[in-house]
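User: Study the shape:
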Amino acid sequence: MAELNILEAIRLAMDEEMERDANVMVLGEDVGKKGGVFGATDGLWAKYGGKRVLDTPLSEGMIAGAAAGAALYGLRPIAEMQFADFVYPAFNQIVSEISRMRYRSNGTFGLPMVIRMPYGGGVHGALYHSQSNEAYFTSTVGLKVVAPGTPADAKGLLKASVRDPDPVMFFEHKKTYRLFKAEVPDGDTLVPIGKADVARAGKDLSIFCYGYMRSCALEAADALARDDGVEAEVVDLRTLRPLDREAVLASVQKTGKALVVHEANRFGGFGAEVGAMIAEEAFESLDGPVTRLAGPDVPGVPYHHNLEEWFMLSPAKIVDAARTLAAY
């Protein structure tokens, strides 16, 4: 075991996969000699050279398109969108082309590629460096969508994503990059795509979360147990598509109450899909309304620290929502 933060775990996963398979390559803005704006690719250019660690122009459409072409020709590209907010010029490439390649070719062609997406607020990034836009991609058939919340999951899921035969959108919450360190297994350990993790067992209500919200939900669950005697079960979804339906339903059937937590806007957010599934398939187990706690419906995360704090979810806000639900 090694003690790593999430950023170090992501870097290690890419390094190990590039060492294991000469077809794995990295491309994106400033990923080469600079090592990326967050340092995620630091050292890879020096180790593997400019043919496998490619600095690209400031063109997200080109990054996605070049990665797709490379994947068609047998490479396994890891493309970085410097910030998830910048992905929109690549939207046509991802949604209309990359997601549909296997279907349109009747299974003849797959695109084994990963698009890394640093996302999320709480880092004073303001309007164009703080978005949580995962719902655009969870609603796109043909894409897998992953959002780890621990260093071990970041490493294991990224390695699994690189080896996957189809495109994976890999969401990394920027606030978690250096937030904490935790044990990461040594060696070639993969975390399977599509499997949730019960991060904390409980009997009174279920909290469903992913990414940074895992840390917030665990802190909230500890406070609920200490102050209210409420034992919350925290289920880290880890993969948003394919969603671990069995794990979600099993938790709700056990606790009878569901609180779905995510940072993105509430309306049309990913939590609506989780809530709808619970309402349709576990209605008889429910002992209270399926509840969503999410970011407010404003166009972006504000810059001013007071307004950013108002926008962001926190353990205290999760505690308040859980207390209301537990009282039913």
